[in-house]
């Protein structure tokens, strides 16, 4: 799949934010505390913290669930073609 140009549902342009998202996600995952798994969320805590990807999408202005879904589920296969 190529980098999606727009959100499939609402039409918001997302392609110009893709590289920043991937770069920041990798940087923050590498800098994260190695004792904790960033994918495990403690739902019993009084305040549920956002995941690393959620924080980056908030920075980029992706507040709709449709845009978040596209960013989280798109797999770039252009390098394999």
Automatic annotation (TrEMBL):
* UniProtKB keywords: DNA-directed RNA polymerase, Metal-binding, Transcription, Zinc
- Mention any one GO cellular component term assigned to this protein in its UniProt record: DNA-directed RNA polymerase complex
Q: Which Pfam family name is an example for this entry?
A: RNA_pol_N
A single MF term (Gene Ontology): DNA binding
One BP annotation, GO: DNA-templated transcription
- Record protein name field: DNA-directed RNA polymerase subunit N
Which species is this record about?
Answer: viral metagenome
Task: Read off the lineage from the record.
Answer: unclassified sequences, metagenomes, organismal metagenomes
